[in-house]
């Protein structure tokens, strides 16, 4: 009797699993490497916050598309005045925040004023620096006045730091984010996962997925195991490129190779001898064999860059020839600069494998020309403290993942300490230029300037490597901004 | 019984018997052989390695063992056999110095405490030792290297500090029983002060204990160095280290197991060798124990 009972229950369990397997999957578990420190994208620099919430939970007036273009978000249309100073946004109708409160022009004014306020904790306050006034015309219309024309203004508003939040829910935003997006925040198990559920009252096209879970797995080995065990349906920005051929060969999975905005550079401390001499910086640049770094550190994924600009950007100029691999030239330059080789320099390396592995390869390459980097592996917090803020380093490797961030070279106190007044003037000009042709020319000049000044050694554009189950459709192949937009993600029938 | 040396060491003038005994002890022979392999490998690496490990050869990365590279190549195309040979240098150097630190500070402290048994000094020394013992050693080592920066030198200091109480305790307990002996009384009567007695009579008689314990601590030192390097706090690249080789091969273990296997085996065999050697030495130095075993 017991035996029979067991058999029946086993059979029913089997039947149940079978029927579940047949049913179309409507949820998604996706892996990310970094967990957000909190959940307010408007008050922290951590890209991990945007990775979970951008476009899913929070929306801005404009938004980035998968190709990096800027399109309408909560503002369905806008008008720009003749002088380029006044932007009039028409807002989407029938929009509600997840807590049921209505979205209107007041929320826009609140969000923008909060972001640009004196005491604002926004990590990208520069995005809003040009705003002189935000006026509510009527609940569906808002007018933003700039102090000077800004060709980048709509682009700025698309950033995750510029999403619209509500005064009613701002207090607990760090633990309970309330936005207008197609997904609602459900639950956050710290150290493990964040659950989102579909917003049934979404104003736009509803999401296909019922629910989505972001799992945070920082260890590449654990990420690999979790994917292989099918605990995850996808892993966005998979940290170990060496494992991708295995996923590629496995019919259960597919590998999506895209591009990020991450210009990966060997940064040099431009104020620290011997790197204050442009000939030494040039020598470093010529000592580096980019293809070897791409093959060795990224297992062949990633494309070489010759300046601080994304190769997929229409204004990109290929300047890799200015700093081609030529160790003999490096030696000659060092001799010309009167440098006694070998010289010892401190090289700090943050945790990602592109930096750790790339650093070892670069160190070996630099040793060939008489520069002896002393490698110091550091954690992120330590890197930010001593290298980025403290500027106590000679060389370091890092990927700059913000879109269109060449203007960091106009900040003389930035960690690589490049101080070129001409370049700063150029960046000021490009900031107020709204003619696309002229902007494009200026960006090209800027790229050439920093390449010819050998500010840093430009290595490669970081690839975006995503592993997903074969049936999963609609993930962004590229990362024009830090985001994991799930609103268009579906399972193949 | 009057000559304390007969208790512990075979009678002098009997080196043949010593060798005979040593070869009867399988542990000692195997342990010694394993240890020698690595010591010779490390010494040889100063003069010659199959390949140069400072240059990278990306085109030849992750090659399985072959006639060209006996143990294969790593993710930078470096020869793993050469890496293990040079890595042995790092491991042995760290362990030797760490054990050295432990002995140099621990043994005098132990002798001193034993000589003043029951005094305040004894209490202070031994409680300080307890304090160091009370902390998990690897955690403190991580703390030390995290504060002072990761490097082989800091790893040595961190591991060395935890060897001090081990040797201090061992020396003290060994010395305490000796202080009860008649020949110490004789030395006292002869007018020697306790410092001189400690050095001239106590120390030679605890040497055997120290050698055995030193061997064990040596293997623990190698393990600790591998552990610290594994978490990135030991020797920094490009200095090869077994622990870091393991850490770096971790994500590639599913398609290049040789990258993790060989440094792993190197750690295993060295530690095993040292432990067997320690066991064998103890048997050799302490015939009583051996008799009771067989």
UniProtKB/TrEMBL annotation, chain A:
Keywords: Signal
Signal sequence residues: 1-23
GO molecular function, one term: peptide transmembrane transporter activity
One GO CC term on file: outer membrane-bounded periplasmic space
InterPro entries found in the cross-reference section: Peptide/Ni-bd, SBP_5, SBP_5_dom
Localization per record: Periplasm
Highest taxon, organism lineage: Bacteria
Family: Belongs to the bacterial solute-binding protein 5 family.
PANTHER family recorded: D,D-DIPEPTIDE-BINDING PERIPLASMIC PROTEIN DDPA-RELATED, PERIPLASMIC BINDING COMPONENT OF ABC TRANSPORTER
Identification of the protein by name: ABC transporter substrate-binding protein
